Amino acid sequence: MAVISSNKIHDGRDGEVEVSDSGVSTRRYTEVWRVKTNSNTDDATVVEAACPRTGAIYAYDPGARCRRVRSSNTSFSKLVWIVTCDYSTGREIEENPLNDPAEIEWVTNQHSVIAVKDIDGDWICTTAGELYDPPPEVDDNRWCIKIKKNLEAVPAWILQYRRAVNNNEVTIDGITIAERCAKMSAIRISPVQERNDIQYRVLEMNIEVNEETWDLEIENAGFYQTSGGSAGTRSHILVEDDQGNLVKVVKPWPIDEAGVKIESPTPINVVFNRFRVYPEKDFSVLPLT
């Protein structure tokens, strides 16, 4: 049970160039092989092992790869097969699926964010210098990098990278992203796939980019102040009412870095606190290429 000869033949060879409606040009080629075996029971799996496999490079056009292999037993002999190999340009694939490069796509996702400053860096507030309560929200579009990569198995790191942000600079598709500006927003692992008798899983990652970092930034305001930082005595913030009486504030009041009430808060002197709320991981170890 083996192949005793395999020869490329001219009958059936062809090629074409097609331009899609979107303007993408695709080159296609067909090669045909006559294969002879020594057993009537040999099937396509035996025959195709002697011919180019999916992912093989077309000899006359290195940009084209074998995408499909079809085997047909001839009508005149159970020992003779015709194998047709179809090649085309497009996404690069290899004979070994684990060697395929990552497939990367950039898209934007729309979100609503609180608007604190306008495009000139000026505070968004009333003509009296008061911040709006509640603050206005505007649309924001963030880049989402969608990455597909073939892996041998489910990666061990998958449990640690959910919601993670990058702990240092990382370069994806030639673009450098600053630390804590890339966040893993979605991970998907496909069922087991197979190409050329090699099993693999397809990893899909969505990495969302926030150029201002994914740290939480929130106004330093509350109902209490302290007399000496976080370790000091805490007391209610009091303000004068219309009759000049000191009363407890009924909404969060801005306090400074030391936790003390800001007497005349304005958009210029209010304080914003920044917190790191997402786990930080090394994104450079991810399969990004």
Question: How would you characterize this protein structure?
Answer:
- This protein folds into three domains: 93 residues, no CATH class; 112 residues, no CATH class; 59 residues, no CATH class.
- It is mainly beta and 289 residues long.
- The chain has a five-stranded antiparallel beta sheet with strand order 1-2-5-4-3. Strands 6, 7, 11, 12 and 13 form a five-stranded antiparallel beta sheet that branches.
- The mean pLDDT is 94.
- The chain contains one helix and 22 strands.
- 15% of the residues are buried.
Q: Secondary-structure blueprint of this entry?
A:
Layout: E1 3-19, E2 25-37, H1 44-48, E3 57-58, E4 61-73, E5 80-88, E6 103-114, E7 137-151, E8 165-166, E9 170-172, E10 175-177, E11 182-189, E12 193-195, E13 198-209, E14 216-219, E15 221-222, E16 224-226, E17 234-236, E18 238-240, E19 246-248, E20 253-254, E21 272-275, E22 280-281
Parallel strand pairs: 8-22
Antiparallel strand pairs: 1-2, 2-5, 3-4, 4-5, 6-7, 7-13, 9-10, 11-13, 12-13, 14-21, 15-20, 16-17, 18-19
Strand tally: 22
Main sheet: strands, sense, barrel: 5 strands, antiparallel
Based on secondary structure, the structural category is mainly beta
Question: What level of helicity do the residues show?
Answer: under 10%
Question: Looking across the biggest beta sheet, what order are the strands in?
Answer: 1-2-5-4-3
Coarse shape? elongated
Radius of gyration: 32 Å
Count of alpha and pi helical runs: 1
Mean pLDDT: 94
Strand content: over 45%
